[in-house]
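Example record used in the benchmark description.
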Amino acid sequence: MNLLNSDDFWQFACTLYAKPGQQNTLLALQNQQGKNVNLCLLLYYLDSLNLSINTAQLSLLQKVVSEFDTLALQPLRATRSYLKANQNTISDYATIRAELLSTELKLEKQQQHMLIEAVNEFELVKHTEPNNIELYVKAT
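Model output (structure tokens):
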């Protein structure tokens, strides 16, 4: 099988995320169920390519995102949230917010690259109707 390309995945993810309702759905999975949005997007991407992963591979992907989430993305999101709640007391809030959003986007893209590198080590199975996202949503 050809290796998956992180730039293609990024484009797919941006397109899917921009569709009406998708952002809310993905953020609900993140905020209410503790799911990783980039992993969700990857699973939708694999579904679109008719590729299926198994529970062991899903577990490995969860490990790939876990440390990066904990040490890079979650603290940045917490900082943005804190600043937003206190924006009236922060000089140049708009500029700081824009720079943090830009940094977060770069980190999201890096995490997607990490996921693609991991998936490219897997032996993926062609499947006419994969449902990788369901496997993840049902996982604890």
